[in-house]
Amino acid sequence: MGSIAVIGSLNMDIVNRVERAPLPGETIQAVSTVYVPGGKGANQAVAAARAGARVEMIGAVGQDAFGEELLTNLSTSGVGTEGVLVEPGSATGIAFITVDALGENSIILSAGANGKLTPGKIAPNGRFALLPDWLILQNEIPYPTVAYALTYFAARGTYVIYNPAPACQLPEEDYRKISMLILNETEAAILTGSEVVSAEEISRAASILVDRGCREVIITLGARGLFYRGWEDQELFLEPFKVKVTDTTAAGDTFVGAYAAALAENMPIRDALRFASAAAALAVTQKGAQTSIPERVEIDRFLKR
Questions:
Q1: Which of 212, 213, 211, 210 lies closest to 229 in space, CA to CA?
Q2: What is the pTM of this model?
Q3: What are the angstrom distances between the C-alpha of 243 and each of 52, 258, 284, 297?
Q4: Using CA of residue 229, residue 230, residue 233, residue 234, what is the dihedral sign?
Q5: Is 76 marked as a binding-site residue?
Q6: Could you tell me the pLDDT band of residue 135, with boundaries at 50, 70 and 90?
Q7: I need a surface site. Which of 52, 116, 155, 251 has the fewest CB within 10 A?
Q8: Which residue among the candidates 64, 253, 271, 300 is catalytic per the annotation?
Q9: Which residue in 203, 231, 296, 286 sits closest to 34, CA to CA?
Q10: In this structure, is the dihedral angle defined by the CA atoms of residues 13, 41, 192 and 219, taken in order, positive or negative?
């Protein structure tokens, strides 16, 4: 099995569960409040590790109790943490998450140490003496750092999986450095500037992104499943697994990490997509970010059922 590196964010999630989201200017009571290790980068690293991959995390935390807890949780999940910097005088990143009775969430991010992960802090300096076979990137760290990683690793033949969330417009030249672009309908609409609702619109959006230079594109569609487009116009829709939704917080991150783990095992594309979809389906049945990410044995058991 190949190795995976994740460059991205580490957050402490402060999760408020409510009956419904508050209206503007309204104060409501939370049903409960919990603190859960999160951050898109860390979530994806944990998902890949629990799915059976060998994973290293590269990021930054503050010199505080939250940072210590996040590092401990990564190690416990089997993720290497030598690449995680502890920023003196900085706070660890925080995500303020509201989850309603239907399991839908809204999130406010406070970057903290994630915002200080500049290109110079991930520059090789011996750190990448052995290049990972697979790299996962997202947008909860400064984009210049993402762009640096895209350029550095793409030039060295690493398969780069990029999850552009939160979504932002990319320089045209960066698309050509992406091996696999994984994004949802909202993010696809932002990147392409077009509606992404109908099957035809989804296919067209994926074609636009491939034409810009991405080798492959996956558009996740929530309860409608996913769409894959690859080289030579290969495309497929995959139906979702039917489960009872409790909390969607880390579903996308679980999909990304599990998909990378499946590719690292050389699973065929359809099998890898099904494996990652099963992991994401299991994640939405549980509460929290990393607390909801399933272990490999759970994914295998679910697929057998």
A1: 210
A2: 0.92
A3: 23, 18, 8, 18
A4: negative
A5: no
A6: very high
A7: 155
A8: 253
A9: 286
A10: negative
Q: For residue 83, say whether it is annotated as part of any ligand binding site.
A: no
Active site residue 64: no
Phi, psi of 11 (to 5 degrees): -130, 155
Question: 12 among the known binding-site residues?
Answer: yes
Among 106, 101, 102, 104, smallest CA distance to 32 is for 101
Question: Is 62 among the annotated ligand-binding positions?
Answer: no
- At 15-34, the pLDDT tens digits run 899 999 899 999 999 999 99
Q: Check whether 249 is labelled as a binding-site residue.
A: yes
